[in-house]
Specification:
By secondary structure, this protein is mainly α. It contains six helices and no strands.
Length: 132
Amino acid sequence: MKFYRKLENSVFGGVLSGLSQELNFDLFLLRLIALFLFFISAGLIGIIYLVLWIVLPAVDSKTTIKEELLDKFEKLNNVSDNKKKLLFLGGGLIIVGLLLLFNFLLPLDMIIKIVIPVILVIIGIYFIVKSR
């Protein structure tokens, strides 16, 4: 089993698209699970996604990850300094606000006792339905 990024049907970097194809798992459901896990893990899934985006090779791309990263940084350098500052400030405030909001709405003990078991049950039901 070899994991890779698949740029076709991708939203961001193709990580989930490649994983869903390799695992033969529904892409939409995988995206929902990843989004849900992002919020209950206080953004840890986002960091894992970024690492996978950098590490995993793209299967249907003519460019290497190094060229993709350089292209993205070059596009960012073309943005004015004022816009960069506003972009990073806005993004930082959104992340901090979401972390505070989800910590208030879903305390850690509730996540461990309720949310994770519910996710496991839903995934189990999905596998049983998919096997028929």
